[in-house]
Specification:
Layout (H helix, E strand, L loop, with lengths): L3 E3 L8 H8 L1 E6 L4 E6 L2 E6 L2 E8 L4 H8 L2 E6 L5 H9 L7 H4 L4 E3 L5 E3 L4 E12 L21 E12 L1
Length: about 170
């Protein structure tokens, strides 16, 4: 079954399940070049009276270059049967490998020419509204530092959800 445009109110994913075990692909770029990566952290809800999606990317990741240059990003949630794709997109760098081609994925485009993955169960197209670096001095829980041993702190990207697609 192909993805089709739906009213955002029609999608009601179990967010805690999706981002606790299934993961998703974050994609940014344009028709000429894009990159995707597996993410396990995401926040969905309302912010500034708009449906919002917050994703987190370390500045060292290749995808961050695309996130910085793009006005849009997408979140494509694949089924649990696509675990091999999620592993490949989460362990290989787009600097060295064309993950989209290697995994046999198809790229479609939403608003703002935002690239998304056609094999997804559901997709959110987001217009970037806010970017902020996370900082260790802002943490109120010492356990958080364990996520940052040897790597940089995440950059937070908040996007307004402007389109949704579902199978």
């Amino acid at each position: 079954m192909e993805l089709h445009s739906v009213d955002l109110k029609a999608i009601s994913p179990n967010v805690l399940e999706v981002f606790g075990s299934n993961y998703a692909l974050l994609t940014a770029g344009n028709r000429e070049k894009c990159n995707t990566m597996t993410i396990g952290w995401c926040g969905l809800g309302r912010l500034w009276n708009q449906p919002s999606c917050t994703v987190y990317v370390r500045p060292e990741r290749y995808t961050d270059e695309f996130m910085e240059k793009s006005d849009y990003f997408t979140l494509s949630v694949l089924g649990t049967d696509k675990r091999d794709i999620m592993m490949a997109c989460g362990t290989k760098s787009g600097r060295n490998v064309d993950k989209i081609s290697e995994c046999g994925l198809t790229v479609c485009y939403g608003q703002g020419d935002a690239p998304f993955i056609a094999e997804a169960e559901w997709v959110l197209v987001c217009k970037k509204r806010y970017v902020q670096d996370m900082k260790p001095e802002c943490c109120t829980d010492d356990r958080i530092g364990a996520f940052y041993r040897g790597e940089g702190w995440h950059r937070m990207y908040v996007g307004e959800v402007v389109e949704a697609y579902q199978k």
